[in-house]
Design goal:
The chain is of the alpha/beta class and 270 residues long. The chain is built from nine helices and ten strands. The mean pLDDT is 91.
Length: 270
Amino acid sequence: MSTASVSDASPTPFAVPAGKTALLVIDMQRDFLLPGGFGESLGNDVGMLRGVIEPLMTLIAAARESGVPVIHTREGHLPDLSDCPPAKLNRGAPSQRIGDPGAFGRILIRGEYGHDIIDELAPVEGETIIDKPGKGAFYATELTEVLEAAGITTLLVTGVTTEVCVHTSVREANDRGYECLVVSDCVGSYFPEFQRVGLDMIAAQGGIFGWTAPSESVITALRQGQGQERSLRSDQGQERSLRSDQGQERSLRSDQSDQSDEFVPVPSSR
């Protein structure tokens, strides 16, 4: 197994082990990112989040090319709101609440148009989608089982928002023993100061919750790892071919030895 490294990650270089790394894309949903959606109804500038889309598209493409699993999450609730506690449902005084009719269907309700992931980052066939009722990707979901089944130990974390669902998910992952790198230009907040402080908090005190690095450096590491894997497979193929040739040579020598040992009758004297 090869291990690439994000050399300029903060606070230290970050290892990206092949076959044990997954890309986690958190809550890139229409309700949060589209103009007129729930996020904007709360008075937020969705343009602050939409800046994440382009670099994240590039990172997801690189992950798919490198064979790194991509796992998507969606925050939302059952239509009867039985999985949405009153403490969440009734908090604050928004103009619209979870479950209310919105521009893209009932707000944050599973199966509604607004609940789904934006078109630019739509999952492809075979990619895992985790529907979560809370802010963290692990709470009341099957994410732990999915990661364990795939042998994943390392997470590249992206999505929105930096200080809420991304932070909560990274803290949950940290408590469960996963190594996490938050990709700094692939996470976003409605508030610039929260974005800066949120990223600083991840890598503070020697990486108390994890590491941070820009997507360009992460993509370089993924491609480095892909090259190492190809080289390793080539070396292994050559080694197998050499062993096969050696086996054939030994078999040939054995056949020749058998032939030389065959009994040759000696004519008798009369």
